[in-house]
Amino acid sequence: KDTNGDALWVWCYPSITAELRSLLLRKCCLTDENKLLHTFVFGQYKRSWFYITTVEVQDSPALKKVTHFSIVLMTKDFNPEKYAAFTRILCRIYLKHGSPVKMMESYIAVLTKGICQSEENGSFLSKDFDARKAYLAGSIKDIVSQFGMETVILYTALMLKKRIVVYHPRIEAVQEFTRTLPALVWHRQDWSILHSYVHLNEEEVEALKACTGYIAGFTDSEVNSRPDLYDVYVNLADSEITISPVVKEAMTMGKLHKEIGLLIVQSAEDPDKSDSQVIKDISLKTKEILATLVSLTEVSDGNEKPTLNSEALKQKRFPPATENFLFHLAAAEQMLKI
């Protein structure tokens, strides 16, 4: 952004589609009317992750006519801490030299050797940033302290691969909350369901609708009146969770859910437990549920994948809500005969 207040797309390597370019300009706070500076935002679009770091320029002889700039990194993996650290180094290089060429040298070094070193700008080592670390970086305890027993609604929605929309006017709050949710279903270790920064833009909404289950973060309160986008709606600002009528039946809560809810709350409220221990406790309960499900399956017709034997499920005489949940879980885990 220059001293005239114009936001310009200056440089790009290797190349980018027009569609992605307009998406990234939309995500970058320099084009935003409200003048709020977001130092770091991230999200994904059609399986590509974007990480955007923005800095204000102060006394940089190399960038006399520039007031702010953003550096966007596109990657195939989810790792906000890794790319926040790397884009910060790239920002320092750009502040110093005012030329993308120097940034390129560091980018290529990280791409080929996984490391870039410089005395004044700091060094960066790819292998310091393990994917698992990124998965564990959010705080489950914070989610439970905000939603208590209702956390089990989020757990159930994730287990059943439903569509969760999260709203908060502050993008930082949305990102922190949404990035942690996939840890509730740790056995899948699947962060591709996370879309932490979505605009109500036609292309983005269409791309989102093409996904089966997802967690989508919005800062536009209009999303509340888009029931076509969610099964579960989380208003983070008001600490409210709403279940859409469409999934009321699949998401019926019963004794099992109460048990899971209590386990989540007790574990999260234990001051001696870390977030990763809480995730482990929930994961053990999930394994137990999945083991029950597997015990009710059979392998038939030379299919490798076992499918649910609904007679065996009925004979167990589980409470209706438990039977219902196991049936829908089998569907989510692709264990139903078509």
UniProtKB/TrEMBL annotation:
UniProt KW keywords: Endosome, Guanine-nucleotide releasing factor
InterPro entries hit by this protein: FAM45, Tripartite_DENN
Similarity comment: Belongs to the DENND10 family.
Protein's GO biological process: protein transport; regulation of early endosome to late endosome transport
Domain (UDENN): residue spans on this chain: 1-338
GO CC field: late endosome
Record's subcellular location: Late endosome
UniProt protein name: DENN domain containing 10
Name of a matching Pfam family: SPA
Source organism of the structure: Strix occidentalis caurina (northern spotted owl)
Primary residence: other
GO terms of molecular function: guanyl-nucleotide exchange factor activity; small GTPase binding
Biological classification of the source: Eukaryota, Metazoa, Chordata, Craniata, Vertebrata
